[in-house]
Specification:
This protein has about 150 residues and is of the alpha+beta class. The chain has 4 helices and 6 strands, in the order E-H-H-E-E-E-E-E-H-H. The longest helix has 12 residues. The protein starts with 10 loop residues before the first strand and ends with a helix. Pfam families: AHSA1.
């Protein structure tokens, strides 16, 4: 956040990944429950607009660890958008209440791989969740996705 950002403005985590795998394989890592669970969290995703699904994070006192999601947009092997809600208002750190939107955009790369763009929007820019989830998304996501896809190919 810079000094000119209004207090009520929501912040987004934006990350670009370069993956060696083609969009069809990366799409699987984003939309198949077992593959998605292997690099993110257990879930029951189905890439169909209107489908409601959950991610299951470790529970903490005051929050059961469930992230409630709904598929908002699907463009096969190109774009996936879902609402990400969960947590508890009273929690300040891990498990703080969120109502955000996750957008994945896949673009074929010249080398046969994928340019994967993530935008996770709707955060209070001063929140702990924004800081911690930003670190998580910027961490080893690309490496983990590639490892999961390599293991799934065997």
């Amino acid at each position: 956040m810079n000094e000119s950002t209004p207090v009520n403005e929501k912040a987004s985590i934006v990350v670009d990944y370069e993956l060696p795998d083609p969009p069809a394989k990366v799409w699987r890592a984003l939309t198949e429950p077992d593959l998605l669970a292997a690099w993110l969290m257990p879930n029951n995703i189905h890439a169909e607009v209107g489908h409601q699904f959950n991610f299951h994070a470790p529970a903490v006192p005051g929050w059961d660890g469930t992230v409630y999601c709904e598929i908002l947009e699907v463009a096969l092997q190109q774009r996936l958008v879902y609402r990400w809600q969960g947590g508890a208002k009273k929690l300040e750190g891990y498990g703080h209440e969120l109502d955000t939107i996750v957008t994945w955009t896949l673009t074929p790369a010249a080398n046969g791989g994928t340019q994967l763009h993530l935008e996770h929007a709707g955060f209070d820019p001063e929140s702990y969740a924004y800081k911690v989830m930003g670190q998580g998304w910027r961490g080893k996501v690309a490496t983990r996705i590639s490892e999961v896809l390599a293991a799934a190919a065997h």
